[in-house]
Design brief:
The chain has 488 residues and is of the alpha/beta class. It has helices spanning 38-53, 55-58, 62-78, 80-91, 95-118, 152-165, 180-192, 206-215, 228-241, 263-275, 295-307, 327-342, 378-381, 397-405, 420-429, 462-467, and strands spanning 2-3, 5-7, 10-12, 18-22, 29-34, 131-139, 142-146, 169-173, 199-201, 219-225, 244-248, 254-257, 287-291, 346-349, 368-371, 388-394, 409-410, 412-416, 434-437, 452-453, 456-457, 470-478. The strands form six sheets. Strands 14-15-16-13-12-18-19 form a seven-stranded mixed beta sheet, sandwiched between helices. Strands 9-8-7-10-11-21 form a six-stranded mixed beta sheet, sandwiched between helices.
Length: 488
């Protein structure tokens, strides 16, 4: 049976090409559906443009819009196991990870419901006795939200929730490989009472469906999470249309061990930072810098931890790494490791698919650590998006900062140090939008997230996360009792 998609508030078959959601653990098909067609895109955007203007949405006071988001959060929490299992089938992440992502999505709904209720305008200083000014925030209109395959439910809620809270309509284009969570969220929003037309979910290829959405003249903002090359293309489209963008793009994040770091804390955190999610995270700590005097000690313990990680079926309890998203992506990761060998790198562990016959049909790859490469090598500079860590020694802080910042990306960084004063000074020198100190890959929905350099534009989460989907209007109130007198 073919899965329907959500077009302009209605469930029906897409009129585009056939798609399939494939389970990366064994290649089996979880669901079949038809992509949205260009006619579906047109219908969804026209409905969205009408829906956000209607008094049933635009005329609601903030706490009424917030009520729908609170309901969605409750619905997500009531279906954690169902949603986690569906995301595991969609992209192969272990159930422990997908449960956490589902809980995060529920928290996102609650946070932006609260932000919606409490968002304030501004009352700038009165300029004179006969004039008062105020500033309000209003919705933009139709938002194009394009989401990635690595953390669908979390990424989609981080776009849908603030955009709706701000009073907009949203057209979601989920990743071609992982359409099921966005469709499930549409079902939950419908159940929560979201007025018809405010949300559409249009699966399909980015070059067809995504391109049609973002180029549509009624779309007033593009919110994208994904690769830098696509983000750059979308930025050009936005520039031509003179509309805003939020771009959360790639990363090649440094994780730094200081001389005084706790060995066990650092080694465990480094392993989690790169190998959780099988390294398929833009924030993965994929470049490791270790002081030369502690290099052997740190690497020895890190290798012990890495070699003890369990790679296996994502529905098996206790598994650390599930499969990569596809065989093609695993081949791309393997090609980077082969490139490292060709450039003189030493593969200390991993560097291949697992030998276990029960994993042969899946797209698995062992956690891999490489050393001996020059920092300018492609493997040290380019985002691999897999469980591959490159280790490099350093001699002093100035050299370290130069190497850490010597990259086109600037999404995140990690620091392991017993001296917080030192760590904070070092963090101030790093060109990264997020810096973790003695932890890694921990988030708060109230804290803005985004990148420096080619890692993106704008911020998601936090109060800025809802204002990113609004435009500011200034009002001038004349308080004088006499005419302006200009024509006298």
């Amino acid at each position: 049976m073919t899965q329907p998609i959500f077009i302009a508030g209605e469930w029906r078959q897409g009129r585009g090409d056939p798609l399939a959601s494939t389970f990366p653990a064994d290649g089996s098909v979880t669901a079949r559906l038809n992509a949205a067609s260009l006619a579906d895109v047109e219908e969804a955007i026209e409905a969205a443009d009408a829906a956000w203007r209607r008094p049933e949405w635009r005329g609601l006071v903030p706490h009424q819009r917030a009520t729908i988001l609170y309901r969605v959060g409750q619905l997500i929490e009531s279906r954690v196991e169902e949603l986690a299992a569906l995301q595991t089938r969609d992209n192969g992440k272990p159930l422990a990870e997908t449960r956490a992502l589902v809980a995060s999505a529920a928290g996102t709904a609650r946070y932006f419901a609260a932000a919606c209720e409490t968002l304030e305008g501004e009352l700038p200083t009165q300029r004179s006795s006969d004039l008062m000014t105020l500033s309000t925030y209003e919705p933009l209109g139709v938002i194009a939200a394009i989401t990635p395959w690595n953390s669908p439910i979390a990424s989609e809620m981080q776009k849908i929730a603030p955009a709706l809270a701000a009073g907009n309509a949203v057209v979601v284009k989920p990743a071609e490989a992982t359409p099921l969570l966005a469709l499930k969220l549409a079902e939950l929003f419908e159940e929560a009472g979201l007025p018809k037309g405010l949300l559409s979910v249009l699966p399909g290829r980015g070059r067809v469906v995504g391109e049609a959405i973002v180029c549509h003249p009624r779309v007033r903002k593009i919110s994208f999470t994904g690769g830098t090359s696509t983000g750059r293309h979308l930025a050009h489209i936005a520039a031509d249309k003179l509309i805003g963008t939020s771009l959360e793009l790639g990363g090649k994040s440094p994780t730094i061990v200081c001389e005084d770091a706790d060995l066990e804390e650092a080694a465990q955190g480094i392993a989690y930072g790169i190998f959780s999610s099988a390294g398929q995270a833009c924030i993965a700590g994929s470049r490791l810098f270790v002081p030369r005097g502690r290099y052997d000690e740190v690497m020895g313990r890190l290798l012990e931890i890495t070699q003890g990680l369990r790679v296996g079926h994502p529905e098996t309890p206790g598994v650390h790494l599930g499969p990569l998203i596809s065989q093609a992506h695993r081949d791309a990761v393997a090609a980077y490791v082969d490139q490292a060998r060709a450039e003189g790198g030493r593969v200390l562990c991993g560097g291949k698919a697992p030998d276990a016959p029960e994993l042969a049909d899946g797209s698995y790859y062992l956690p891999t650590i490489i050393e001996g490469l020059a920092h300018h090598s492609g493997v040290c500079q380019e985002e691999i998006f897999g469980p591959v860590l490159v280790a490099l020694p350093y001699d002093d802080e100035d050299e370290l900062v130069g190497l850490a910042n010597d990259n086109v990306f600037g999404l995140a960084a990690g620091i392991w140090s017993a001296d917080y004063r030192r760590a904070l000074r070092l963090a101030a020198r790093l060109e990264a939008g997020t810096v973790w100190i003695n932890t890694y890959k921990k988030f708060a929905i109230s804290t803005p997230f985004g990148g420096f350099k080619e890692s993106g534009l704008g911020r998601e989460k936090g109060r800025q996360g809802i204002q990113a989907y609004m435009q500011q209007k200034s009002l001038y109130l004349g308080l004088g009792s006499e005419p302006m007198g200009w024509s006298n």
